[in-house]
Write a structure and sequence with these properties.
Blueprint lengths: L1 H22 L6 H9 L2 H18 L4 H8 L19 H11 L3 H6 L17 H9 L19 H12 L5
Helix pairs in contact: 5-7
Length: 171
Amino acid sequence: MNKKLLSLLLALVMVFSFIPAFAAEEAPAAADKTAEETAKPEEKAEEKAEEVKETEKAVATPEFIQFLKDNGYVEGDKKGDLMLDKNLTRAQFTALLARLDGKDDVAKAMKTLGTKFTDVTEAHWAKCYISFAAGKDWVKGYPDGTFGPEREVSYAEIATVLVRYLGIDTM
């Protein structure tokens, strides 16, 4: 189970990190630019709204992400938006790892416990996941006692956490 989970998690992280590049819009051609420059402000606003709608359609939720959402592995923000155009944060990665490990309920039960990280407030949405992962020694935080929950997670950090998660002895 651990190797399958690790493979899935690594694949997800890689896919999430590439989505912003694929969702980028192409620059308008030179001929289109002159038409844009002469358009009225109202027309520009309408065109921009149409472009946004087209971009939203182009970034439709892939099937495997919908599977993860349907099974509670990823939740999105309060509106259910998965924010696929943004990079994964340390808090999001920690929550994802706990959920994929099947420990969502255990982590949520830790909500009332304190946290050892000075920058993870009681009200932070991922406090329970961060506390759970820290208790398992999957995450360590920074030497200054912070965790940086809203910082983007790096590949090096992901690799380090996964090595700890799998219990691989590196010494």
